Amino acid sequence: MFGGAFGGGSQQPAQPAMGGQAQMDPNAQMMAAEQEMEMVTTMFEHLNDLCYKKCLIQRYSDEELTKAESVCIDRCAAKYFQVNREVSDKLAKMTQANSL
Asked: How many helices (H) and strands (E) does the chain have?
């Protein structure tokens, strides 16, 4: 679901059924979707907290973000996702190497 976009979602692939199509038990699908949604929500909360503390001035003199705050938030989020992707890729490679 969100795994590709957010660097997570390392679910185990379903076992192929007859005809070569993968099928999962509906309960297992719902459980996997709930776990992934919880993971995405947790990641978003962490990103929000991290970038808020780093980028936003604590005195609100204006209701709009300043240019500097906006740029900082963009860079913070981009770096967060880049690092998350790199760590996920590294862990996937390590897991794959260990399973051989």
From this structure: 3, 0
